Hints:
The structure is a homodimer of 194-residue chains. Chain A is an alpha+beta fold and 194 residues long.
Amino acid sequence: xxxxxxxxxxxxxxxxxxxxxxxxxxxxxxxxxxxxxxxxxxxxxxxxxxxxxxxxxxxxxxxxxxxxxxxxxxxxxxxxxxxxxxxxxxxxxxxxxxxxxxxxxxxxxxxxxxxxxxxxxxxxxxxxxxxxxxxxxxxxxxxxxxxxxxxxxxxxxxxxxxxxxxxxxxxxxxxxxxxxxxxxxxxxxxxxxx
Amino acid sequence: xxxxxxxxxxxxxxxxxxxxxxxxxxxxxxxxxxxxxxxxxxxxxxxxxxxxxxxxxxxxxxxxxxxxxxxxxxxxxxxxxxxxxxxxxxxxxxxxxxxxxxxxxxxxxxxxxxxxxxxxxxxxxxxxxxxxxxxxxxxxxxxxxxxxxxxxxxxxxxxxxxxxxxxxxxxxxxxxxxxxxxxxxxxxxxxxxx
Lengths: 194, 194
């Protein structure tokens, strides 16, 4: 499947779209290749693009007060990667978006996205629903981060993203769960001995 | 200002709306009065309504694994209060929505809200933008909860919501910050002695 076919399949989940409309929709997207360890966005920069991941994997993270990286989420194929706060408000980003593998994304600028709402109003519905889904994900993330034990958070993660666990190293997963990698390794040992 | 005037003022921030459209929009909203300590939603129930607060104050909270209440956010006048996960997916709620003061809300059911997107497509834009704003708020909340010290979280809160601090007791604010009220009282003492 090409990058654009993947995007089309993703959109079709939200709204029916004709060939002509899809052409309009994608006219201002372009493909970016990001090598492993390269950044799509760095803290302090303004998030210029919203990116649809067609290949690879990114970590979206911020630095806590001790300077440790805390991972907000991972974005793999068919996920969108962006600092929405920086993108919408065009203010300096608090997030970093780094490729964990050689990756490819389709990107659109804020200017072009805003124009799209005018020329193709049906994308309002699409992004309204997408934003809703992201809100649900964020809400679950907050509840899980603040209200559940690390054991439970780990189990939820591997149940929800079994394929992703294989692609991440222990350090990355620990930074997502908000624990040290030593502690993650203890949890894993404990659970596997059950 | 009446309840509906407040709602109209809120909507006008997102989209221009005519009198006729506003009538269409509000046809399926109705007013609910909730007494202090009463619940708009209880954990385990399905969130039937999205609520626009016109008077009073709610705490939206969940119980962590120790059974302590952790506050996700407060909703006062012109905020929307809902468990979006439960409302969208019509699954049992993980959240409680409790009135901290005698309150009033304008509510709409999922059925009527879904119908509204069909009869008045411009509300797609409105809720797309509203969802975007909520996403930004959630993202900041996650970054703040996981990445910042309690002192800083407290200072951010009183800077951002000075009026709200006056309406909350120490316990409520501590439950929002994710700390004990003894610890909050220490922070307050420390900061006031500076």
